[in-house]
Q: What sequence folds into this?
């Protein structure tokens, strides 16, 4: 009854060998994780760093004649400045003056 095509022929179970995990692979994986974590913290730190205000002084200011026929645009920006908080703009007003109307 040990014929090749017979259902009664059984094979002995084969032992499976487990692969050993390389400590070098685990070390490289952890190293890559910590490098990516460090880069992420540096990017986040640079994005949330406080911004210092540098006032712009323009010495070549152009005076506008009151009797000019050209339209004049004036932008008014108000800032909100509180203790222990960053400065934010809280008001934006664009005024367009047309002398002909």
A:
């Amino acid at each position: 009854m040990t014929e090749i095509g017979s259902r009664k022929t059984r094979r002995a179970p084969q032992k499976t060998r487990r692969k050993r995990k390389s400590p070098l692979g685990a070390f490289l994986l952890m190293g890559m994780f910590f490098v990516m974590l460090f880069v992420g913290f540096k990017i986040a730190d640079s994005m949330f760093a406080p911004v210092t205000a540098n006032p712009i002084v323009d010495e070549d200011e152009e005076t506008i004649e009151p009797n000019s026929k050209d339209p004049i645009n004036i932008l008014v920006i108000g800032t909100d400045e509180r203790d222990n908080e960053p400065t934010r703009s809280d008001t934006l007003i664009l005024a367009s003056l047309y002398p002909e109307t």
Residues 23-97 form one domain. The chain has one helix and two strands. Helices lie at 23-47.
